[in-house]
Write the structure tokens for this entry.
Amino acid sequence: MSETRRRHLEAISPVPAILAGIVSVQAGAALAKGLFPALGPIGTVGLRVALSAIMLLVAFRPGLRRITAAQWRAVIPYGLVLGTMNILFYLSLSRIPLGVAVTVEFVGPLAVAVFGSRRAVDMAWVVLVAAGIALITPWSGGGADALGVLLALAAGACWAAYILLGGRLSRIMAGGASVATGMLIASFVALPAAIATGGFARLTLLLFVAGIGVALLSSAIPYTLEMIALNRLPARTFGILMSLEPAVAALVGLVFLHELLSVRQWLAVALIIAASTGSTLTSRRPAPLVGGEAGEGWQGG
């Protein structure tokens, strides 16, 4: 990175940077959902992940030949989980609103935050999460598609695995190199799935350009902005800001996709945000650095 570019990035305030990154990720998801009628969710994932991998490899130049055997053993499962997480999230997004999908997926990082804890306060966050999910489920009158909710939960489980694998990888490989290499591995999951399902059969130049937009909004832009914030914000503050992601997803879905959430679903979003914020505030450890839908900063979506 040139010194001039570095100075320009450092001039950006960290709080607006992280908020802009959240909006960018969700705008990318909304744009991706607009491609589903032509490419399908898996075709869209394949295009987005492949283009993201190219962008990140060009930006960070990880030097694949210099990666050690130990680093490969860490980055391969990380990339496989990343690719699977994106497929599951996009499949859920094809069946339920963006705000609901992100809210349900958020259970993954919350589970990591409170797993193994016996403190009463952490159990309170679990209860809030359970209440939020219960409000969304169709069998409780929440109105969300059952399979869509289950797919989002599966994506959340992958998100949890991604956090744990990413923590291990971060100890032996630089951040930019690990993300770029992980996305390359993810493309070996997403691309064959897209080809096998005929996802590229209707690909046109206009759709390809839209795919570039999805990759920029979901990967390149938020990763850059999150790196600015991570270098200058306390981990706890970063975690609290990221807790706003379900609400931002719901608002982006409303504005760009005209997805109206019910009162019960908005309440579920509020409960998940409360649990995430509370977990961050009461945690004895720094907030985990996880990847959302994008899978390379905080995702994830």
About this structure: The first helix runs from residue 3 to 10. The chain has one domain: 13-282.
